[in-house]
TrEMBL record:
InterPro entries: P-loop_NTPase. It holds the Pfam family AAA_25. This is AAA family ATPase. It comes from Rufibacter glacialis. SUPFAM superfamilies: P-loop containing nucleoside triphosphate hydrolases.
Length: 376
């Protein structure tokens, strides 16, 4: 048939629409759950996002910001709870405490909660009253204390989660005894669950949570798998230690901060039972003498080799942040307690001596460091 006549013929082809086909045409499948989650998680590179609000500064350095959690670690009786009182007082009254701890919660997030899982009710009340005395406020309406010692780990976790999601205008939370929210401190699954909870709570509500955890008796590391997991995810990690030259003095220093480390400071308990800054305390003396004096060039080359061999024992390639973290952990295990800035000096020194080599593409996720086996 000629094409001109074919073009005039009515269209005869029919599509046999089965019930399944009709359902797919008129009721298209919904977006798969994982695809929805992936789309929600995508970071828009065209939008300027505001920086997190700083809720607490220490000596001008950002310590606690909205949407993150931090850790306070120390051995038993190192006065961790006294230092917690100072942090709480700073955000309760939104002002400076001890001269260098500056609280600054936004007006719409002025509520503060203190969860105590370790002490009895009497001592929980005593700690809360210390917060009031430090803040200079008789009864602030934005501060509540809860004692959870009598409950089991699972019930404590359930109560805390309920309180966090049902407290209007919440801004800052302290969990004094994060270990008591899991049944085993060395259970990797529970440690991962706890860190995931903290990350979820803080991000969804834009709050900050300060967790308190004991250090191991034999070293300066936070206890168990839980301590390791939380240290890896925390925005800031502070340690509290007693001064080796004066047992009445406690030293607060930055183990890790995303912002610049603040200078260590010391406090003691005054005649009123409140923490007070030790004026003219020299961080280069006493308990910090080894920390301040240590320089990479002062360490014997064999010790450097041992450090690097241990650092790269688990993985032959490390990102910069992983390298800094592993060097710090190794130095701590060797009894050489140093801050993050000092660790970075070690890393720079290792590069200058070509004991470690940088590979990959500079400024990208592929940049990494490896051990130079020829020099180590």
């Amino acid at each position: 048939m000629p094409l001109d006549k074919l073009a005039k013929q009515p269209f005869q082809h029919q599509v046999n629409i089965t019930p399944d086909l009709a359902s797919s045409v008129f009721n298209p499948p919904s977006t798969p759950p994982l695809l929805r989650l992936l789309q929600a998680a995508k970071v828009d590179l065209e939008v300027e996002l505001p920086a997190p609000l700083v809720f607490i500064r220490i000596s001008g350095s950002a310590f606690a910001t909205g949407g993150n959690f931090s850790m306070l670690i120390g051995k038993a009786k190192s006065r961790k709870t006294f230092s917690v009182s100072a942090f709480l007082a700073s955000v309760v009254k939104n002002s400076a405490v001890l001269g260098n701890i500056q609280g600054s919660l936004p007006e719409e997030q002025r509520e503060v909660i203190f969860f105590d899982t370790e002490q009895g009710t009497y001592h929980s009340q005593k700690s809360a009253r210390r917060v009031l005395r430090l803040s200079g406020l008789e009864r602030p309406l934005n501060f509540n204390t809860y004692n959870l010692r009598k409950h089991g780990a699972a019930k404590r976790l359930e109560i805390i989660e309920f309180a966090i999601y049902n407290t209007p205008n919440l801004g800052f939370v302290v969990i004094d005894g994060i270990r008591d929210l899991v049944s085993s401190i060395n259970d990797e699954e529970q440690a991962s669950m706890m860190s995931s909870k903290l990350l979820k709570w803080t991000e969804e509500l834009n709050i900050h949570i300060l967790c308190v955890l004991h250090q191991n008796k034999g070293d300066t590391n936070a206890r168990g798998h839980l301590g390791t997991e939380l240290q890896n995810k925390a925005e800031s990690v502070l340690s509290i230690t007693k001064d080796t030259q004066n047992n009445e003095i406690s030293i607060v220093e930055a183990e890790y901060c995303r912002d610049k480390d603040f200078e260590p400071f010391a406090f003691q308990i005054d005649e009123c039972g409140l923490p007070a800054i030790v004026e003219h305390w020299n961080s280069s003396k006493g308990g910090n003498e080894r920390r301040q004096a240590l320089m990479p060039a002062d360490v014997h080359v064999d010790m450097h080799k041992g450090i690097l061999e241990k650092v790269f024992s688990q993985s032959p390639e490390l990102k910069y942040g992983e390298l800094v973290h592993q060097v710090k952990l190794t130095l701590d295990e060797l009894g050489t307690k140093v801050g993050t800035n000092k660790v970075k000096e070690f890393v720079q020194w290792y590069q200058s001596k070509e004991m470690i080599l940088k590979g990959g593409i500079e400024g990208t996720s592929k940049a990494h460091y490896t051990l130079n086996s020829k020099l180590v």
